[in-house]
Prior knowledge:
By secondary structure, the protein is mainly beta.
Amino acid sequence: MKKTLIFLSLLAMTMGFVACSNNDDFTEQIEVPQNTKMTIVASLDATTRTSLGSDGLVKWSVGDKILIKSIVAGGQSEEFVLKTGAGSTQATFEGNVLANGNYRAYYGIGADLTLSGAQTYVADNVKDAPMYAKVTVADGKTAPVQFKNLCGILELTIKKSVFEKVRSIIIGTNESLSGVLSVADTGDGITSKLGTGDTKTLVLDCGANGVALTESGVKFNIVMPENNYTGVGIQIFATDGSVCTKRLKSTNLPIARSEITQTSFTATTDGVEKETHEFIDLGLPSGKKWAFMNMGAQSKASEMGSYYAWGEIAPKGHYTWNTYKWGTQSSLTKYNSVDGKKELDLTDDPAVMNWGGKWHTPSKADWEELIKNCYIVYTANYNNSNVKGYIVYKVLQDTDKNKIYTGSGTKSSIHSSYLPEDKTTTTGGFFGFGGTTRTEQKTPHIFLPWGSYYNDDKLVNSDGTQMYLYYWTRELSSIKNAIDYKGSGSSLGASSLDRYYGLPIRAVRDADPAPAN
C-alpha cells in the first residue's frame, strides 16, 4: 500500500476583507455593521481540502456550505453559503452576522459530528470531506480560521475483468466505520475517533448507471475515520447483479487523518459472495427465508441491531426531516408525486446494499405471509435475555397457523409443544465482526424483539412500559409515510409512520431456484 499526504485545509476568514493564503501576513480586522449579512472569504491552498483532481488544484464547488455553531448550548447557529468563487481556490461565503463568542465551524459534516455510512461516488474526489475549525468572534471581529480534516481516504483502484460497471461498494471491518465522531482539539493538534458501538460497514453508491471499469483501473475514494483497521472485507456489486467478495491480504489497513491509503485489485468472480447471514426456513409457501437476527445485530436474536430511516442504507445519530436523505416533508426529492415511486429501489434498500445477494427488506405481503403461516408466541423473556417480543415458529401442524399466544387462554396446550431453546456457535462473518451458525434449534423459529423506533435521537417509549414491535416494509403508504409492521400483545399488523423515523429491519431472503430437471 502506498500513502500520499493530503495537507490540512487552511481557511482564512475575515469579515469584509479578502483573506489570502497561509503565508500572507494580513491581520487587519474590519468592523461589521449589525443586522447585515456577513461575508466570509475562504482561501484554499492548491494542495488542501481533500480534492483529488488530476490537475492538482483544489477548488470550491457550487453549493458548498459552511455551518458555524456556537459552543454555548442554545447559542447562535448559522449556515454560510458559497456566493462567488466556485471553480477557484478562493471563494466568498455569505451568512448572518455572528454575535460575539466562541464557535465551531463544520464543512461536509453536521455539528453533531455524525459520519454517515452511506457515501456517494465522485470521480477523482469525494463528495464530502469532513472538516472542522475553531472560530472566535469578538467586538465584531474574527481571527483567521484553519479548517482541519477529520478523516482520511481509502483509494480503491478496481481493474476491469468480468465486471463492466460497478454499482456499489461495501466495506466492512472489525472496527467502526460510521457513527458519531468524538473530536479532541488542543492547539495545533487534533484527534477524532468513533465509538466502539458504531456501525462497522459503509457503502459507496456509484449511481443507478454505475461506473465503467477499465483495464488500467478506476479509482474509488472512500472517506474513513482514522484507525488501524483489521479484518477488512470488500464487496463489489456490478450493475448486472454480479457480486465480487474480496478480503484484503494485509492483516491491517492503517488510515491516517489527512492521508490517502491506496490499494488495488481486479474484480473477478472467484470471490462471489458466500452467505454469512443466517436464515431460518419457516416452511412458507413462497419459499422465502427470514433472517435469524435484525440487521446490525452482532450475535444474538434478542439484540435490536441498527435503526434506519425509510429508504436510507445506513443508520445515523438523528432521525428528523432535516436529516432525511430524500428531503423534507414539504420538499421530497424522491418517492414523491413527481416520480410516483411507492416501493424502494434496490439501491435504497439497506438489506440489498448491505447484505447483497438475495436479501431485501420485506414487503407488506411478506409480513402477511409470515403471520398467516406461522404460530406466534409473545414472551417477556426470550431465552432468559429479559427481552420482550414475538417468537415466530414454523408450525407443527396446519391448524396452528395464524395464531398468536400471549400467555393465557386456550392456546396454552399448543404453546407447550413449541420449544424456543437453541444452541449456537459464533463464527466470524464476511466482514469479520461475527456471524452466527445454528447448530441446533428445537423448533425452527425467529425472534422479533420489541424495540419501538427513533424520533430525532430519542427512542420512543424507551422505558419499556409501552414498548412495541416496529419494522419497516419496503412500501410507502403515502408520500409522507411508509408502511411498517407493528406488534402489541395479541395484535400484529400493518401501520404507518413518518418515513424519517428510525426503525429496525428484519431482512428476507428470496427462495432458491428449483433444480433443473
